[in-house]
Write a structure and sequence with these properties.
The protein has 21 helices and 29 strands. By secondary structure, the chain is of the alpha/beta class. Helix 3 crosses helix 4, helix 4 crosses helix 19 and helix 10 crosses helix 12.
């Protein structure tokens, strides 16, 4: 049976999860997790949580799923030490830097790939397997067919979200909160601006999805071999956790479940299964209404009864021995643990001797503990008498001792690790790269190092190969869902035959695919590289130079170490969200031209552009421009042109090269701000 994995933002939620039947819980420390506003757990609380869970056969996974900075590496190491001290079962990771350091500091700690890594196809899974990950949490945007194909193509553990909130953007690909404010979703402090009233094609709240619920499909997911069913909700109250875990446990055991209760506890105008079924239309959108809140308040009190008492789920065997003239003994076993408790010496009686049934009745009263008797044997002599109180005392002492032993956690082994800060990288010169969305708007001159064009543009305009030669970089799709993988491979084969040597990749899956064709790999901004460990890590898997995350500021950029060439986006209407369900879509997208506008509550307009009806990108309302500003130690700037005309792009390029200030409204992005 698949693992049921529940969220625990605090200790009360953890207790609710365990007592309602969760097989595992995921919790966060005070730092480096994607829900930093939850209560979370400090070092001592983390150990107590693991102790509580392990005593009850429940695993604990610790979220470590944010991007980190170089100056945070000592805290990262400290955090790994805390996790190892607690005896937790795995860490959930987004940043390759964290994964690499875990391998060096605590190699016995298993690593799970967070959904923040945006793993959307089997190639991403295979790359992570090579990197030493033991489990992958798939992106939430996949259909049942795609999940099935991935599960059937790997021996790695696959974890799938089955209930809870849906981000509008593909996880790890959202920069809306950081661009519009100072809080980064990749740093665990998303301000959720997408839940505000963005409008598109006369529809309101066009960036707010309903919550997902796959409770009707647990049998299908179980049958294909999904290892873990994950429930979202570390910011939710314990009653929510209890209700969801209880009902999903019932569904997994083929018992009845109450989906209407789940809607009442928390939903946004009901639930959606649009990603699972492939019906990605307007029905997926919803908001939290007043009626939703009223429904929630009406059911919360009764739900708390679900976790008031211990769940008796730990099976034990008991052996009772009572003979005249010798002490009574009760031995209890759980797995390979054994406790033997000595009791009173029995009295002689001819009238009311104890028997097997009498003893079993007393010993089996394990209420208030997590234990349930699976096997019981009794060796009782003739004419033996013991009082009920003495037998009850024997049981209590034995179970208390067994629980105490089971609660002991074994810290994981920590290796000596002498961290030394990296030497700062110093660039020798700075070049310019131009990225164009359309071939017709592209141009090049002697001052330009590379020209970047999307793969479909190159295949539609093969003259670009002769025009730009080795200066041409082929841009691969931002994300590649499993259904699109075969098409991508065909396109990669075509560009290889055209003689194109260079590709820019935004994901691990694109890197894996490109290596199969022997291509020269450039890392895109979508890799979310924010530290030297990550730079070096991507270099080791075949990335030759990289565009740094647009969420880095100038001080962090200039202080990075390593040897790999690096650059930043210097101009452009940057993609700030990537969607698989389109905000502009109604019941049918067949008549859409692929370009739409989304407006926020202040009237600012964001362009929405579709890629082959596979996904769409939302571009910022203002262009980033830093031609008149100085950032040290970068080897290149990329001017990221989207729908600009050739003439306008030329003027921007000249302006940037000459270091001139813009004559238009712009943003400097987070380059000159400090994100939380």
């Amino acid at each position: 049976m698949p693992e049921l994995l529940a969220p625990a933002g605090g200790f009360e939620q953890l207790i609710a999860s365990v007592r309602c039947g969760a097989d595992a819980v995921y919790i966060g420390t005070k730092n480096f997790n994607a829900r930093r506003n939850a209560k979370n757990f400090d070092k001592d609380d983390l150990k107590k949580a693991v102790s509580f869970c392990h005593a009850r056969n429940v695993k604990v996974y610790v979220t470590f799923n944010t991007l980190v900075d170089d100056n945070e590496i000592p805290k990262v190491i400290e955090n790994i030490n805390d996790i190892a001290y607690s005896g937790a079962d795995a860490a959930i990771v987004q940043d390759l830097a964290v994964a690499k350091i875990i391998k060096e500091v605590c190699p016995s700690l298993k690593i799970h790939a967070s959904t923040q890594m945006a793993i959307t196809n089997i190639d991403g899974v295979r790359e992570l397997e090579k990197l030493g990950f033991s489990r992958v949490v798939l992106a939430r945007e996949l259909s049942f067919k795609e999940i099935s194909e991935i599960v059937n193509s790997t021996n790695m553990e696959i974890e799938v979200f089955v209930h809870g909130a849906l981000c509008m953007s593909v996880s790890g690909r959202c920069y809306l909160s950081s661009m519009l404010g100072d809080r980064s979703g990749n740093r665990g402090l998303c301000a959720q601006p997408c839940r505000l009233n963005f409008k598109c094609n006369n529809r309101e709240f066009a960036l707010s999805l309903k919550d997902m619920s796959y409770i009707d499909y647990v049998k299908k997911l179980s049958d294909i071999g999904v290892h873990s069913f994950k429930i979202e909700g570390r910011m939710k109250r314990p009653e929510y956790v209890a209700a969801v875990v209880h009902n999903f446990k019932n569904a997994l055991n083929s018992n009845s479940y109450d989906k209407e209760l789940l809607k009442s506890v928390f939903s946004r105008s009901g639930f959606t299964d649009g990603y699972f079924t492939g019906k990605r239309n307007v029905d997926m959108f919803g908001i939290r209404t007043k009626d939703d809140v009223i429904a929630s308040n009406s059911v919360l009190k009764d739900i708390s009864n679900l976790y008031k008492k211990e769940l008796q789920s730990v099976e034990i065997s008991c052996k009772f021995i009572a003979k005249l003239d010798s002490p009574t003994y009760l031995t209890v076993k759980s797995n390979d643990l054994e406790v033997k408790i000595q009791g009173e010496i029995p009295e002689y009686t001819e009238k009311n001797p104890i028997n097997h049934d009498f003893i079993y009745d007393k010993i089996s009263k394990t209420g208030g503990t997590p234990f349930v008797i699976k096997e019981f044997t009794a060796d009782i002599g003739d004419n033996v008498f013991l009082s009920s109180s003495s037998i009850n005392s024997l049981r209590r002492k034995a179970l208390e001792k067994l629980l105490e032993i089971r609660s002991n956690v074994t810290p994981l082994k920590i290796l000596d690790f002498n961290y030394k800060a990296f030497n700062k990288y110093v660039s020798k010169s700075t070049s310019i790269r131009l990225r164009f969305e359309k071939f017709e708007e592209s141009f090049c001159n002697s001052n330009i190092e590379y020209i970047i064009l999307p793969i479909d543009e190159i295949l539609s305009h093969k003259e670009a190969v002769d025009l730009y030669g080795d200066k041409l970089i082929c841009e691969l799709p931002t994300v590649c869902f499993q259904d699109y993988t075969s098409i991508l491979y065909k396109s990669l084969e075509e560009i290889s035959q055209l003689g194109i040597k260079n590709v820019i990749c935004e994901s691990l899956s694109a890197i894996f695919a490109s290596k199969n064709f022997g291509l020269n790999i450039f890392g895109g901004q979508g890799l979310n590289i924010t530290n030297t460990y990550a730079l070096n890590g991507y270099s080791k898997i075949g990335v030759n130079d990289a565009t740094l995350s647009t969420e880095l500021n100038n001080k962090r950029i200039s202080s990075l170490g390593g040897n790999i060439r690096r650059g930043i986006i210097g101009y452009g209407y940057l993609p700030i969200m990537t969607f698989r369900t389109c905000p502009a879509r109604g019941k049918d997208c067949g008549k859409c031209g692929g370009n739409n506008i989304i407006s926020d509550r202040l009237g600012k307009q964001f362009r929405l552009s579709c890629f082959k009806r596979m996904y769409s990108n939302l571009f910022n309302c203002l262009p980033l421009y830093i031609g008149d500003k100085k950032i040290n130690n970068v080897d290149f700037y990329t001017l990221y042109f989207t729908n600009e005309s050739k003439e306008y792009a030329k003027s921007i390029t000249e302006m940037f090269i000459n270091g001139q200030p813009p004559n238009f409204e712009r943003t400097s992005g987070p380059y000159f701000r400090k994100l939380q």
